[in-house]
Design goal:
The chain is an all-alpha fold. Helices cover 74% and strands 0% of the residues. The chain is built from four helices and no strands. The termini are far apart. 2% of the residues are buried.
Length: 94
Amino acid sequence: MPAAKPPEFRRRALDLVAQGEPVAHVVRNLGVSESCLRRWMAQDDIDSGRRPGVSSGEKRELAELRRKNRVLEMDIEILKRASAYFARENILPK
């Protein structure tokens, strides 16, 4: 998988298309695939409110919340196992 392009690069590509440059010409000059540029264009439409969908900021927030949720679920599982271990230890005679 190729490395992600910086936001400035994406913005420049989108600006070229917005100025009327043909997509094929921009793709050839910048060395990105046409499908990649079209995805950037679609996401830009969503971010600017011209099209419904999940914005880039919302996607980042959702990914962060999912990551935190996974960590919390692991913490809960560890605490469950620890409490079961200590509960078992208290029941057995010494």
